[in-house]
Design a protein that fits this description.
The complex is a heterodimer of chains A (230) and B (304). With 230 residues, chain A is of the alpha/beta class. Chain A is 34% helix and 28% strand. In chain A, helix 3 crosses helix 4 and helix 4 crosses helix 5. Chain B has a four-stranded antiparallel beta sheet with strand order 2-3-1-4. Classes of the chains: A alpha/beta (230), B alpha+beta (304).
């Protein structure tokens, strides 16, 4: 489903000094897999997620989403790919001027879905994450855990093929962390591909799923039932 | 497409009403800018009125020899009118009209009246008062033509040389007012555009993260840009409504005061006569600046 072929990503500092964040990365992710990408802060996890989302173009190498080379894809193709991905981020990335309902509905509106369908799906997913009584609240009126659950609802509402979670539990307490990870597991059990980028050792070790370990922009380990070992 | 458009409109109106502080600031700045542009248009009207008033008072006079037939003078008048499109008007003043006008002007001056009685006959010459568009070159051309052999047998003298300095001075002043008025106006309009652009830029900068999030979830450029552009239109329309009302009120209440400084100029009348131009300027400026600013700023965020 996703394939990285010898991908290198180099940023330039303001003074022009090259900063290699990913170096010669190659791996593939199959449909329905649960893959954790782990590593210390600055290991390259977020850059890898941004490359999958088409927010960055690799300095060298190729990234394929199914058969589409992201570097060659036009804006419309990239947008279509992003709509097939449900994203959950550490900073939630909610739309602050939209209500809970509107935040979730926005994803379906982007796709041009009918209002009736949107109402039905949004109500359903908000019930799943326990925010059905908060539909008219704005994100800043929610707690951190509620905001992350809203981000999860937004990621799930469109029934995406892939869920990318970039440090989804970074700002959460153990209870909310457990809730979010459980939801991701459920989504994976229902056939969705899940990519979890985190440095939460405990979470990874409990999952018992494939783990790709990054260090200084390089893959140092890729194990089917891996553990967080650095 | 229609659903998409409806959604963009809803997003824009929601954002406009939910960001009251930013919306009020953007509209306030836009109102000031539009009022500045409207003020320039009022100024343009006043300068135009003043210029035409001064220019109307300037003319040259061709005095005909005593005994010239009226028909000959009227023939010359027709020929002058055909000389150039810049000739605004030629007025024939007969000997009797000249005398009557003199008497009316000096009816309280006993010395002049007595002097006129002593002369016995009408001492005034028939004349043609010629007005052009104010350009001294036009007056010089008319004067030169009237002093050629064809006309010299009929015309006694043309008073252009006596008025030349005044005509040139008035023309230079009015030309400079127009030129510097336009330059000053252009500078003010550019400054206004920059101030409005920066206000809208700041308003959109506030939504930078929001735009990034919209991109991440796969919103098309149009779906991201649309609400900001519509908000730019709303800023423009709301500002226009405020400005057209303010312009009407200002011109109505200031009309009498401006009339003291510039007698005969009816500011409110000028506003009513040029109503559609004010609408076009205010609505056009407001919406155009609002939309262009939004398009440029959002494009920057979509490109990064």
């Amino acid at each position: 489903m996703i394939k990285f072929n010898n991908v290198t990503k180099i940023y330039s500092d303001p003074n022009g000094t090259p900063n290699v964040v990913l170096e010669d990365i190659s791996f593939g992710i199959k449909e329905g897999e649960f893959v954790s990408i782990v590593g210390k802060s600055g290991a390259g996890k977020t850059s890898l997620v941004r490359l999958i989302l088409g927010l960055e173009i690799p300095t060298s190498g190729e990234i394929y989403f199914e058969n589409v080379n992201l570097a060659d894809a036009d804006a419309s193709e990239i947008q279509k790919i992003r709509r097939r991905i449900g994203g959950i981020y550490q900073d939630y990335r909610l739309l602050p001027k939209k209500t809970v309902y509107e935040n979730v509905a926005y994803i379906m509106q982007v796709e041009g879905r009918e209002n009736k369908e949107i109402e039905k799906e949004v109500a359903k997913v908000l019930e799943v994450v326990g925010l059905e009584k908060k539909i008219n609240n704005f994100p800043d009126e929610l707690s951190g855990g509620q905001q992350q659950r809203l981000a999860v609802a937004r990621a799930l509402v469109n029934h995406p093929d892939i869920i990318i979670a970039d440090e989804p539990t970074g700002n959460l307490d153990p209870y909310n962390t457990y809730e979010v990870i459980s939801l991701l597991q459920k989504m994976n059990q229902s056939g969705k591909t899940v990519i979890l980028a985190t440095h939460n050792r405990e979470t990874i070790n409990k999952l018992g799923k494939r783990v790709i370990t990054l260090e200084d922009g390089k893959i140092i380990r890729d194990e089917a039932e891996g553990r967080f070992i650095i | 497409m229609l659903t998409s458009l409806k959604r963009v409109l809803t997003f824009a109106t929601n954002d406009f009403s939910r960001n009251k502080g930013i919306s009020v600031a953007a509209v306030f700045v836009l109102v000031i800018a539009i009022m500045l542009v409207s003020g320039l248009f009022f100024f343009h009207g006043m300068v135009g009125y003043l210029t035409s008033q001064i220019q109307n008072k300037i003319d040259i006079t061709a005095y005909f020899k005593d005994g010239t037939q009226e028909q000959d003078i009227l023939n010359v008048k027709d020929e002058i009118l055909k000389m150039s499109p810049n000739i605004k008007g030629v007025e024939y003043i007969s000997q009797d009209q000249a005398l009557a006008s003199f008497n009316e002007k000096h009816k309280d001056d006993a010395v002049l009246a007595k002097a006129l009685q002593e002369v016995g006959s009408n001492p005034f010459l028939p004349s043609l008062n010629i007005a052009t568009n104010g350009d001294p070159e036009q007056y010089a051309a008319v004067s030169n033509t009237l002093q050629t052999a064809d006309y010299s047998k009929l015309i006694d003298k043309v008073d252009f040389s006596e008025k030349k300095d005044t005509i040139e001075k008035v023309y230079s002043i009015t030309s400079n007012i127009n030129l510097y008025g336009i330059l000053f106006g252009i500078i003010l309009v550019i400054l206004s555009i920059l101030v409005v652009f920066n206000t809208i830029r700041l308003a959109i900068e506030n939504s930078r993260e929001e735009i990034r999030t919209m991109r991440i979830v796969g919103a098309s450029d149009w779906f991201v840009r649309g609400p900001f552009v519509v908000q730019g239109i709303i800023y423009g329309v709301v500002s226009f409504l405020i400005c057209i009302l303010l312009s009407g009120l200002f011109s109505y209440f200031l009309s009498s005061k401006i009339g003291v400084v510039l007698p005969g100029f009816d500011m409110f009348g000028y506003f009513l006569t040029n109503w559609w131009i004010f609408v076009l300027i205010q609505l056009g400026f407001g919406v155009w600046v609002g939309v262009i600013s939004a398009v440029i700023v959002v494009k920057k965020h979509l490109d990064t």
